Amino acid sequence: MRIAFFVNAIEGESPLFTTSLLAAAALSRDHEVIYVTPDDFTLRPDGALVVHAKVLPSKKFKKPETFHAALQDESLQRRTIEIGEIDALLLRNDPSLDLAARPWAAHAGILFGRFAAQRGVVVLNDPEALALAQNKLYFESFPDVVRPPALISRNIDEIRHFVESHPKGAILKPLQGSGRRNVFKVNSASKSNLNKVFEAVGVDGYIVAQPYLPEAKAGGIRLFLLNGQPLKHGDTYAALRRMPARGDQQSNICAIGAAAPARITDDILALAERVRPKLVADGVFLVGLDIVGDKLLEVNVFSPGGLWNMRELYGVDFSNPIIRAVENKVAAQAVSKEGIDNRMLATL
C-alpha cells in the first residue's frame, strides 16, 4: 500500500510530530510512504493529477530521530506519481501556518484532496470536513451543551460587554488560527487594556471571546477519537492532560505546557458521544478534542498531535491502530464495485 502524507513543509517536520510517528508506523507495516507539500501537485491538461513526491526508503526505523534524518535527507528520491497510484492521502497540514506568508498554500490540501477522492484515493480527514473546519466557526456548529458560550465579533463594544458580563475573565483569540498565538486572558474591560488586546488579536480578523473556565488552572485534556470513537488500547485511552506553565492560562504543549496522564471519566466519554454524530457525518477520521472541565474548547481536525507524549506517558504506541484503520478503509474501497463515498469511508 502507498500512503501519502501531506504537510506544510518537509523542513518544518519534527521527529516527535504525530505525522512522523504515523509515517514510521506505516513503514514498519511494510507500506510505501511518500511526503507531499502544497508545491507538489500538478493537474495536467488531460485531467491527470500527479504529485512530485519525496519517497521514503523502504526500511523500519526504530528511533524517531533516525526517521527524521531520513526524511530531511536532501538526496532522497523524488518521483512523479499519478494520484490513482496512491492508496491513501493523509492531510496533515496546519493551514494557519501558511495564511500570512503564502495564503495560496493554506488550502491546497483541501482543493487537491477533493480531486484525489474523486479518483478513488482514500483521503483522510475528508476534504469537505476540513473545508467546514477552516476556522473556529465550525466549533459553533456543535451542541450548545458541550461548549462554553462564545461571541464572535470585530466590534470592540460588543467584546467589552462580553468581558464585563464574565467577572472571572474571558479568553480572546483569533477566529482563524491555531496554537497559542494571540490568545489572551482578559480580566478587565478597562479601555486601555482591552484596546491593546483587541489590536493584537484583531490583526488576524474576527475575534472569538469565551468565558475563562477556572478549571483550566488544572490543565485541559486532549482525547483522540478515531472513526468517531475514543481511541484506546486495552484500558488506556489515547489522551493526555496538558498542564499550563505556572502563571500562564495556556496549555499548548508545543509552546509552554507539559504533558501528564489523563483520567477519562464517564462525563468525558459522554461529551465525546454528544459530538460523535456530527464528526461521523462530516467524515472526520482522526480528531483531537480539547476539554476543560465539562466543556469542549477546541475540535482539532487538521493535524492533532500528542501521540509521542502518550507513548512516553503510557508506553503505548497509538500509531499502529491508526494505520490499521487506514488499511481497512483502503481494503473496503478496493472491494467496492462502484466505490464508496469518501466522506462515508472516512469513518467507516
Automatic annotation (TrEMBL):
Domain called ATP-grasp: residue spans: 137-327
EC top class, as a word: ligase
EC annotation from Swiss-Prot or TrEMBL: 6.3.2.3
Entry's transmembrane regions: none
Pfam families: GSH-S_ATP, GSH-S_N
GO molecular function: glutathione synthase activity
UniProt keyword terms in alphabetical order: ATP-binding, Ligase, Nucleotide-binding
Superkingdom of source: Bacteria
SUPFAM superfamilies in UniProt: Glutathione synthetase ATP-binding domain-like, PreATP-grasp domain
Protein's name according to its UniProt entry: Glutathione synthase
